[in-house]
UniProtKB/TrEMBL annotation:
It holds the Pfam family PepSY_like. Residues 58-141 form the Putative beta-lactamase-inhibitor-like PepSY-like domain. The lineage of its organism: Bacteria, Pseudomonadati, Bacteroidota, Sphingobacteriia, Sphingobacteriales. It comes from the Bacteria. Residues 1-23 form the signal peptide. Coiled coil: none annotated. This is Putative beta-lactamase-inhibitor-like PepSY-like domain-containing protein. InterPro entries: PepSY-like.
Length: 146
């Protein structure tokens, strides 16, 4: 039983470390001025923002038009993408079919529409702890890597 306890403790520490490494909270005072300026220009009515560092970029998490939203910016203020939470039913039909065929008995926990700066749209479906990415037509692209 002691071995199980040690293994469990190591697993908990590893999960906590991994979560911290993937996205770290950043105080608004540490967010570069160009990032804040682009954010305010793009989302002028948003007042509550949670900032995180993700893969060297600044991610703003907030609610806009009653939807959970995030936007990712480079340190010089260039917006890379935005992600808006959507209802599962709003996903393209091929996404729903893919999940049904490839994740039998599993349901979509969360769904999102991702819009890249150039206008490219992707969809994300969280299934069985994995973020599955699809193109604008619902064609599977890949399992997202943290």
């Amino acid at each position: 039983m002691k071995t199980f306890g040690k293994t469990l403790a190591v697993a908990i520490v590893a999960v906590a470390f991994n979560a911290a490494a993937n996205a770290q909270s950043v105080p608004a005072s540490k967010v570069p001025a160009p990032v804040k300026a682009t954010f305010m220009k793009t989302y002028p009515t948003v007042t509550k923002v949670k900032w995180e560092m993700e893969k060297g970029n600044y991610e703003a998490g907030f609610v806009s038009q009653k939807q959970e939203t995030s936007a990712v910016f480079t340190a010089d203020g260039k917006m890379l993408e935005s992600e808006v939470e959507i209802k599962t039913a709003a996903l393209p039909a091929p996404v729903l079919a893919y999940v049904k065929d490839n994740y039998k008995g599993k349901s979509i926990k969360e769904a999102a529409k991702i819009t890249k700066t150039g206008g490219e749209v992707n969809y994300e479906a969280e299934v069985a702890g994995k973020d599955l990415l699809f193109d604008s037509t619902g064609k599977f692209i890949e399992v997202a890597k943290d």
